[in-house]
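P.,

For your records, the input lines for the assembly:
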Amino acid sequence: MPLTHLNARGEAAMVDVGDKPTTQREAVASGRIVMQPATLALLSDGKLPKGDVLATARIAGIQAAKRTHELIPLCHALALTKVTVDFDLNWQESCVEVSALCRLSGQTGVEMEALTAVSVACLTLYDMCKAVDKGMCIETIQLDSKRGGQRGDYRREHAPAVSAENEQSVQGAEVPSVHVKFLAELRERVGDSEFMVPLKQLEQGDIAGVKRALQAQDARFSVLNEKRTLCAINQVMANDAAPVTDGDEVAFFPPVTGG
Amino acid sequence: MELRVSIQTAPFDMAHGYASVLDERTDIGAVVSFTGLVRDFNETPDVIGLTLEHYPGMTERTLEAIGREAGERWALNAVTIVHRVGELAPGDPIVRVLVASAHRRDAFLACDFIMDYLKTQAPFWKKERSAQGDYWVKERDSDQQDAGRWS
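C-alpha cells returned:
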C-alpha cells in the first residue's frame, strides 16, 4: 500500500480529503508512565507539589488533541466532536495507564489526535511528578482501535504475553482462530462453554460469519438466531457487522439481569 | 473523581464503602447510597436463593465505564460500585452504589443513572432457585425504558 503522505516524487504532501465521504470516525489510543510505587502513592493521595496531577494531565491531553494539526506537519485541523482522556492507576505494575478516545464526523481519521492526547497527557504526568521521581518512563504509546473511513476498522490484537506458559499456548494455537464463549443460559442450552472457530471456516470475517460457521456445524447453535442473544468481542459489546480477527474472544450471552 | 469497582463473593454490610468514599475529605457535601437486596418473591412466589454469574473482565470494564460516564455527566467526588456474585439467599445485599458530590442533586441523579445502566449493560445473570425448580431470570422491558431516560 502506498504512503498517502508522499507525492509521486516521494516528497511530503498533505492529502486532499475533499472528495472523501463524511463518516463517523473514532480512535482509541493508550500508553503508560511507569514510576516508583511511592510516586504513585503520592499521586493517588494528591500530595504532589504541583497539585491535582490527573485533572491537569486530562486537560492537557484534551487540549493537545485539539491542536494536533499544529504539531504534526501533514495533519488536517479537525473539529473533534468528543475527546476523553482516562487514567487507571495500576498498582501491580506501578504505573498510570492513559487512554484517549477521539471522535469526529468528518473526512479524515482521528488516530493522530488520540495518540497526541495520550502523549501529551503522559508528558504532563511526567512534568507534574518529576520533582519526586526523575526515573519515570513513558511506554507503549499505541493505537488500540479505530472505526470509520475507507480503510475500515482496526483493532490491535492483544500483545502476546511473555510467560513460558502463555508462549506455549500461543504456539499451540497455530491455526488462526476466534475463541467463542457461551455464558449463562446460553451455555446451558448449547451444552458447552468454549469453542475454537478457525478463521478459514468463516465465509465473512465478522460476527455474522462466526454465527453461520457454528450453525453449519450443529443445530444446537440455533440459539444464535434469537434476537435477544447478545455478543461481545474482547469484552466490548458488538453487533453482527463487527469484524473479527485472529485471537479475538467472542462471547454470546442472554440479556443481562444483574442488580 | 475517585472510582472504585469491586466484584466479590464476600458479603458486605450496610455501612460498606462510606469510609473509603469520604476518605477524611471535607469538600463532600452529599453521599447517596443504593443497596439492592435479594427478594424472596420474584418470578415465583417462593424464591429460596439465587446464583449470580458474570463475565469476568467485561463486568469490571463495564462498571468502570458506567462510573466514568456518571462522572462526566455530573460533578462527583467519588463513586463506589460493589456487586456480589456466587450463591445468595433472600435478604442478602447484592449490589451497592455510593455516590459523593458537593451538592445532593448530582449524587441522587448519578446514583439513579448508575443503577439503570448497571441493570441493562453489566454482564450479570441471575438463576433463581424455588420450590418449583431453578430458572434463569428474564430481562424486563421496564429496565430498558428506565435506562432510556438518560439518553
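Two observations worth noting. The domain at 23-149 of chain A is CATH 3.30.70.640 (Alpha-Beta Plaits). Chain A touches chain B at residues 84, 86, 183-185, 188, 228, 232, 235-237, 251, 253-259 (CB under 8 Å).

Regards
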